[in-house]
Design brief:
Strand content of chain B: under 5%
Oligomer: heterotrimer
Largest sheet of chain C: 2 strands, antiparallel
Number of strands of chain B: 0
Chains: A mainly alpha, B mainly alpha, C mainly alpha
Low-confidence stretches of chain B: none
Number of helices of chain B: 3
Distance between the termini of chain C: 23 Å
Structural class of chain C: mainly alpha
Helix content of chain C: over 70%
Number of helices of chain C: 19
Largest sheet of chain B: none
Low-confidence stretches of chain C: none
Mean pLDDT of chain B: 90
Mean pLDDT of chain C: 90
Shape of chain C: globular
Structural class of chain B: mainly alpha
Chain lengths: 650, 102, 475
């Protein structure tokens, strides 16, 4: 079975693809069958992914340097050969496991959450399509295949955010997400094209060998390669919601909550991180690009965390927290650690999807009223949600022994190591402190939400919350188990842990830096206590605090006015430009096109008159043609250059 | 002495006569006859080449026999089609066959 | 002499004769199964033919090739024949009498095409050509009580016979100058002679004209719009793909094997003809109102695109021709299957009657749109990949001007293809009654659509076969 899974990993994305087609084409009128097909397909994919994972672990670090690659030629022509296929190595195996597990949990959860929705089947079809796209992206052996699935993933995100298309805000959010990420994708495509032009290949393995010695293969300068890396990075900035293209992600919460958990927390948004991880060698070769990635990541992490502090909707807080955590992952990659970035990606997927599903369960109980200030005292009414949510909060806050503790410390560690490096030491030192502050802020805003929602007295008596049904509670429990124990695979005391498999370059056994552990734990615990003090015990009025720091509060609450700035820019700059271009398009371009079109039409209706219907006219034309050809051939000097008048190379 | 070129001139002339018939005649059956002349010009060519160029090898003769057989089949189909269209248009004048145009 | 090399042809003959005899033996009302019998028989032959890749032998002392090139084109012809016979059942039934004979003639036409694509010698080539063409004369005039059909038949016959006369005259001149009718020996003899005699030049031009007629290259294309419009629609479909593809196969073999030393001369001719064909085919297609006639002009234009692969005169070009030829089979037969089922239901071929087809039969509208867009070369459909292969084969040979004409005219073609789609999707139907599509035709529609999309997304499988074909020609 393990062998079968390793050599037939292409089945993993194929199964959901089949499910999508079946649901979409055949079983749309039968919601129960659709759900069954969707869940079965993703379950089989999950089983295969588990076996792939076992196979990879059993093989030791054999696959790290020599991934198991199976490709078929997609199309080829002289000088260009594009392949598609499957590349199995520890990184992709880890992603396969994570994506299929979260997708499976979300599929099960949706049974309860989407129950009774009119478009239940369509929902499952899109979930299957999404799973197919994401799994296909994960196993891509080259950048072009990755790009194709990257776009498919974006399409699914668009479809699912706008799933309740009759809601104006959902439609707008879907458009916003699509357009914003497409902006970044333009850079990604450009970067991919530049790589193809300069290196002649898009294969990840080949690129990995060529790029470190790029001066041998190309005549690129260091600056040139840095520029390519920076352009390529635009794609991940868009998809992984990095500043300044993060604006779509919080709005994406208009989609159904399971979608938010699956796409906008655990899987799709990490595609950008994954892409950077996959092409990390490109960034590592040019330290400038590395510093750029690290800075964008570190800045986004802190930036989003400061916004999350003041938000009043559960899903918005979680969304900004996601942006912040994605920044963390980018920071780790920018510090040169594939292990750090991927490890946090792995653990984050579990506790963040857990919290989203928990938020969904709360929303479900509160009739979809999003304002957390109306909640309160949910602890007694929803014990399972309460306890699992607590686990998620502890995990993201980085409390020992929860999953986030290990991955967050790993990131702080690698950034600290980078700050002792030769280049950009000052920047990395700054980033280290930003990351540490972010960790404290994260613990604070998470427990702020936690205490407001679950503790105290119910603020609005009109709600009658109830515990989630089994189909929704079950995924919560499973995910909370992973949120508790998921970090152990990368714990310092494990001999061949996470870092042994998912790494770039030599294996370093994770060291234990007590200073970081103690500082970060103290900060986290302190922040939790502070949150308890303000929102749990209400020793200090939070309203008074907001009054006291009114300017800061307002800026944070309004998300630094980024959306407003974009709106202003779009209204005043882009619209003006657009209007000018529109005028040009209508009068000049259309004029020319229509002119040509009309000319072609007139010419066509004249030429058709040649076709008189008289067969002897046809015969005459035929023979006239023969005679003219003979004349041309006999007058054209058969050996001279006149023959190549029409082109042709001797 | 009659040589290859005489045969070629004869065949070329015959081809042109046949072509003229096919282009200038209005009666569909006469056109078919013109076509037959063209094919027979080819046959003269083939046999003459077989006699003068590849003496002793009968490729050209065989070719000519095949051409004759095929031409017979073609004319059979042609006459059948002319009968079919005559029933409809009460005419074998090809100038009347112009419903399909433009 | 190993007769097993001819298994495909022998099986085809047996199928045709067998169906003819069975059709005479069984009562008239039971003959409607014959169409399916022919489809199944051809499908089996198609399946068997896969075993013939890689043989690369000749039979009858070089007179008959059994190489990958000919197998590829035979498969193309068989695919076309299978799809046409499967799609045509309802149409032929409505046409009236002689149900069985229609399918028999179709199989004979396919046989002629196979011989044509395998011919290594002029007599064989001529026989294959005439077997195919005479079968088509009969098929074109098959609607006995439709005067358009008879007119198309007589036009095709007279013009076809003329073009055969020209081709034969050319063949006789080449035979006379070189003393051989075997294609590969012609090249040897020509190399010994060193230069082209005037008679050879005339012979070569006559061959260009003869083949140009079959592939309907301008100015030898005049017959095709009339014949395509008048002929029964399944015949039009088969004529448009099969006859054209087989003629291309023979043309490629004759010119690339017999006259490789004079490629500069004939390449110039074909380049001029291709440019004219692409321009005139597309321009005249624009004002057409009858969909069969529009497809006829579009198929003239398609022949122009395919000719660019001949001009390349190398393996890449032949690969392009083979690839494009195969996907053109699916796109064309898909489109004509829609047309024949539409006219079997409504009795009309006018584009304006297609108004609101999307509501009357979503399948027909979708297939027609996909097939037309593939012909226009819109990615990600197969036509795009095909044009990509064709044009890229001549770009580096100095024919950039031809590529530019091809691309501009492809853009123009989108106009008339999309205006059909517009009528189907935007306009309101006059008559709301749904269109009945029989199961066989439904299968053809689905196959053509799926293949057209699949080959656009993943062209490699067909590309591999086309590569085999091209390489076997240039060893």
């Amino acid at each position: 079975m393990i062998d079968f899974a390793l050599h037939n990993a292409w089945l993993i994305p194929l199964l959901p693809a089949i499910a999508f087609l079946l649901i979409f084409l055949v079983f749309r009128p039968l919601p129960k069958v659709s759900a069954f097909i969707g869940i079965t397909a993703i379950f089989l994919s999950f089983v295969l992914a588990v076996h792939v994972g076992i196979g990879v672990i059993q093989a030791g670090d054999q696959f790290v340097e020599h991934p198991l690659k199976q490709v078929v030629t997609w199309f080829e022509m002289s000088g260009l050969k594009i392949e598609m296929g499957v590349q199995i190595d520890p990184t992709s195996a880890m992603m396969l496991f994570m994506v299929s597990l979260v997708a499976l949990m979300v599929n099960i959860y949706s049974l309860g959450y989407m129950h009774g929705d009119q478009a239940f089947s369509r929902f499952y079809a899109f979930l299957a399509l999404f799973a197919m796209s994401m799994l296909g992206l994960v196993i891509a052996p080259n950048l072009l295949q990755m790009f194709v699935f990257w776009e498919l993933v974006g399409l699914c995100s668009y479809l699912l955010i706008g799933f309740w298309w009759h809601k104006y805000s959902a439609r707008e959010a879907a458009k916003k997400a699509f357009i914003t990420t497409r902006t970044g994708d333009f850079g990604l495509l450009l970067g991919i094209l530049l790589l193809q032009i300069n290196f002649g290949t898009l294969d990840l393995m080949t690129l990995g060998e060529m790029i470190p010695n790029f001066q041998e293969y190309t005549n690129l300068s260091v600056g040139g390669l840095t520029a390519i890396a920076a352009i390529l990075f635009l794609g991940p900035i868009g998809k992984s919601g990095q500043f300044p293209l993060h604006v779509w992600l919080p709005d994406a919460m208009e989609g159904p909550t399971p979608v938010s958990a699956l796409i906008h927390a655990a899987t799709m948004v990490v595609a950008g991180v994954y892409l950077v991880g996959r092409s990390l060698i490109l960034f590592q070769t040019v330290p400038g690009a590395m510093a750029f990635v690290a800075f964008m990541g570190g800045f986004t992490a802190l930036f989003a965390a400061t916004i999350a502090i003041t938000q009043t909707e559960m899903k918005k807080i979680l969304a900004y927290s996601t942006v912040s955590q994605l920044g963390y992952m980018m920071l780790a990659l920018g510090a040169g650690s594939l292990t750090g970035g991927m490890f946090h990606l792995f653990t984050h997927a579990f506790f963040k999807s857990l919290m989203f599903l928990g938020a969904g369960s709360v929303l479900h109980a509160m009739n979809n009223d999003a304002d957390i200030w109306k909640y309160g005292g949910l602890k007694k009414k929803m014990p399972i949600t309460y306890w699992t949510f607590l686990i998620g909060c502890l995990a993201i806050a980085g409390i020992f022994p929860f999953a986030g503790f290990f991955s967050k410390d790993e990131i702080l560690l690698v950034v600290k190591e980078a700050s002792h490096g030769a280049q950009f030491a000052g920047l990395y030192t700054l980033l280290f402190w930003m990351a540490t502050i972010t960790a404290a802020l994260t613990a604070f805003y998470m427990f702020r939400m936690f205490f407001i929602c679950f503790h105290g007295e119910p603020r609005d008596k009109s709600f009658h919350p109830h515990e989630a049904p089994f189909s929704m509670a079950f995924p919560l429990v499973v995910l909370s188990i992973f949120s508790i124990f998921g970090g152990f695979i990368g714990a310092p005391w494990v001999e061949h842990g996470f870092g042994y498999y998912v790494r770039l370059g030599e294996y370093h056994h994770p060291s234990v830096d007590w200073a970081i552990i103690i500082v970060s734990t103290i900060l986290a615990l302190g922040s939790i206590f502070l949150a308890y003090w303000i929102y749990g015990k209400k020793a200090v009025s939070h309203e008074a605090l907001a009054q006291k720091f009114a300017p800061l509060y307002k800026i944070s609450f309004n998300k630094y006015y980024i959306d407003e700035i974009y709106l202003w820019l779009i209204h005043n700059v882009l619209d003006g430009l657009g209007r000018a271009l529109w005028w040009f398009d209508i009068t000049v371009v259309d004029g020319i096109i229509n002119g040509i079109g009309n000319a072609a039409k007139i010419l066509g209706s004249i030429l058709r008159r040649v076709q008189t219907g008289k067969l002897q006219h046809y015969a005459l034309v035929l023979f006239a043609g023969v005679v003219i050809l003979v004349l041309i051939m006999s007058f054209a000097d058969t050996s001279s250059a006149s023959l190549s008048l029409l082109g042709g190379v001797r | 002495m009659i040589g290859l070129e005489h045969f070629l001139i004869l065949s070329g002339t015959l081809f042109c006569i046949g072509l003229f018939g096919a282009l200038a005649k209005r009666n569909a059956i006469a056109i078919l006859m013109g076509l037959e002349l063209m094919l027979n010009a080819v046959n003269i060519n083939l046999v003459a080449f077989a006699r003068y160029v590849t003496t002793g090898i009968l490729t050209g003769h065989v070719f000519a026999i095949f051409v004759i057989a095929v031409a017979a089949a073609e004319v059979a189909v042609g006459l059948a089609l002319i009968v079919a269209i005559y029933r409809d248009r009460i005419s074998v004048n090809v100038d009347d066959f112009d419903w399909l145009k433009w | 002499m190993d007769l097993s090399l001819l298994t495909i042809e022998i099986a085809t003959v047996l199928l045709a004769i067998g169906v003819l005899v069975i059709g005479l033996l069984i009562p008239r009302e039971q003959r409607f199964g014959l169409g399916y019998l022919v489809t199944i028989g051809l499908a089996i032959i198609l399946f068997v033919s896969f075993g013939y890749y890689g043989i690369n032998a000749t039979a009858f002392e070089g007179m008959y090739y059994v190489d990958d090139f000919s197998i590829f084109f035979k498969q193309l012809i068989l695919v076309a024949a299978v799809l046409v016979t499967l799609a045509a059942t309802l149409y032929v039934k409505k046409m009236g009498t002689n149900y069985g004979e229609f399918f028999v003639m179709t199989v004979f036409a396919a046989l002629g095409m196979m011989v044509l694509s395998s011919a290594g010698e002029f007599i064989t080539l001529y026989l294959g050509l005439e077997t195919m063409t005479i079968s088509f004369y009969i098929l074109t005039g098959f609607k006995k009580n439709d005067s358009k059909s008879a007119e198309a038949g007589i036009k095709y016959l007279i013009l076809g016979a003329m073009s055969s006369g020209i081709l034969l005259y050319g063949l006789s001149l080449v035979y006379g100058m070189t003393g051989t009718t075997v294609i590969s020996e012609v090249a040897v003899k020509l190399a010994e002679m060193g230069s082209l005699s005037p008679a050879m030049v005339v012979g070569m031009v006559f061959l260009v004209a003869g083949f140009g007629f079959k592939i309907s290259a301008v100015p030898f294309q005049m017959w095709s719009p009339d014949v395509y419009e008048g002929a029964p629609t399944p015949v039009t479909a088969f004529l448009a793909v099969g006859s054209k593809a087989a003629a291309f196969a023979a043309l490629i073999r004759v010119f690339m094997i017999a006259f490789p030393d004079y490629s500069l001369q004939w390449k110039m001719l074909f380049a001029a003809l291709a440019a004219l064909t692409i321009i005139i085919g597309n321009l005249v297609a624009i004002p057409q109102t009858n969909i069969k006639r529009m497809l006829a002009y579009s198929s003239i234009a398609q022949a122009g695109y395919i000719m660019t692969g001949v001009i390349a005169a190398n393996a890449a070009g032949v690969r392009g021709v083979a690839f494009y030829g195969m996907l053109y089979v699916f796109a064309t037969i898909g489109a004509f299957t829609v047309v024949m089922n539409f006219s079997a239901n409504t009795g009309s071929d006018e584009i304006r009657d297609y108004a609101g087809l999307a509501r009357r039969s979503p399948l027909l509208a979708a297939v027609l749109t996909v097939c037309l867009l593939s012909m226009a070369g819109i990615p990600p459909l197969a036509g795009f990949a095909g044009k990509f292969y064709l044009f890229s084969s001549i770009v580096d040979q100095g024919y950039l001007w031809l590529v530019i004409i091809g691309l501009l005219m492809s853009m123009a073609s989108v106009y008339y293809y999309l205006s059909v789609a517009k009528v189907m999707y935007m306009a309101d139907p006059v008559d709301d009654s749904p269109i009945v599509v029989p199961a066989g035709a439904k299968a053809v529609l689905l196959i053509t659509m799926i293949v057209t999309v699949f080959l656009g997304v993943y062209p490699q499988p067909l590309s591999v076969l086309a590569n085999l074909a091209a390489n076997s020609l240039f060893f």
